What does this fold into?
Amino acid sequence: MAAATVLNGNAPSADWPGRYHHVDQILDKPGPRTDPSFLAGPGVKEFLRDQCKILVIGAGGLGCEILANLALSGFKDIHVIDMDTIDISNLNRQFLFRPKDVGKPKAIVAAEFIMSRVPGVTVTPYYGKIQDKDDDYYMQFNLVICGLDSVEARRWINATLVNLVDPENPESLKPLIDGGTEGFKGQARVILPTITSCYECSLDMLNKPTAFPICTIANTPRLPEHCIEWASVLEWPRVQGDKKLDTDNPEHIQWLYQVASARAKEFKIEGVTWSLTQGVVKNIIPAIASTNAIIAASCCNEAFKIATSSSAYLNNYFMLIGTDGVYSFTFEHQKRDDCPVCGGESLDITISREWTVDRLIEMLVERQDIQVKKPSLSSGGKQIYFQAPPQLEEATRPNLEKKVLELVEDGGDITVTATTLPFNLTLRVKYT
Amino acid sequence: MIKIWSMKKNEDAAAKKKPKTSAAQIRVQKDLTELDLPSTMKTHFPDPADLLNFTLTITPDEGMYKGGAFVFSFVINANYPHEPPKVKCIPTIYHPNVDLEGNVCLNILREDWKPVLNLNSVMVGLQYLFLEPNADDPLNKEAAEELRRNREQFIYNVKSAMRGGNIKGVQYDRVLV
It folds into this structure.
């Protein structure tokens, strides 16, 4: 106890004899599945404990588990991002938080808790959105682990890390370990940006959020969920006009709850409650602490193996289904050629500063290795030339006469789409 | 740390650096520039630089809605195509599958949306509603009831509503071309 008190100030050399006795069994000698580049002994330990910088995205159900696992397995420079504050309903499973912390930022409280419990570990919190940070920020890490609950945030970090890959710089390739849970189901996957399938490649595997046919909720409600959807999808815009429904606002939920309850009464449906209302409109699936623990363990296990090369890492998708017994399966999810993030072709082209857009298109159509018909071009979200619809073709037609240089800077990207391309083609333009 | 770089298959693969344009944006560019619409459907962009907000006008050339022009607003968010576009009918129209607020009962706009579908499929689906209004999925119950009970009267009501008529106390917008 006394020793722990002394060590609690993040002393950099807080390692006491035998601290990593068990982890060192793995790191001191190669095993049958170790990578040939494995540096048994001091080399790998020094990398893991003194050099490796890891980013954890999300400090919620998965994030708390991940932070604790990483700190206890010897990662010492951990960063964590989360934009949320602590809610009382988090406390049953997000074990780094206490009732006194309700309302405080998750990232900050989690970081403090880990640092006070695990000597020698530095956890740097950022309370905000992942989108606030730029490429330089993500560049500083060796590894990124995600424990997120949003598809949108996952797509963003995935695209960011894929974009970060610079062919000239091996350090720019950041392995992404993505964990996710939904009730008793979960998945952990290893994404090596541009090498393995990415998050976007598997977008079509997602369960779509439960949506009921709008005519059912309008006419023949049978379930309490139908009444709640009726309140949020049809009644809210009708009664509240342009006022945006904020699912985090308790007054808005209260309004929906009352409207849904009245509807349920009219159709003699039972089961509309405040928490069900909130659950349906926020699309909440009850979180199970043990699913989070399994998935977080799997993610951290992969992070440890990748950081140390001590064993073969996951290739590349682990799924867990705990609804009927405990079933798990591991498979290699295939990269998609038509993936809008990591698929598609990229081509460096060097053209004259005098070239017009029209001339560039002519070149694209003529080139045997590209073979595009009727290409549409944009750069950085701005249209250059669109083949359709007619209004946009007309609006962008004047650009055909302009010099490419006026629209795209040296080294800039042009996004080309055409029916003949699987998805798109990226041109990196240089001028002579 | 594992040496991932050596797994890069060849120089060609390493050259695959991707643009800053978001996946949703590229997908919308692809969907729009590959639209294959019949002459009965036209898109309009209030701001041609903004691809995510536009309208679609459907002018059926057959069926009971022939002679009308029906305008729908399309709003696409950053999560497209994981989420479907949000589509509303702007004028108040007399149609069993469109309510008075402009909500549309089309399965692929909600429960049956999949990322493999695109804007073209949604537009074709909308046009189909005017060729084959469906009394089994009602949003405007009065209209659906009429269609089921008395097809002649329903067609008469459609014509009257399209001229800006009043049916059972509801004022409809004039949508004649």
Remarks:
- The CA atoms of residues 62 and 292 of chain A lie 5 Å apart.
- Residues 214-282 of chain A form a domain with the Arc Repressor Mutant, subunit A fold (CATH 1.10.10.520).
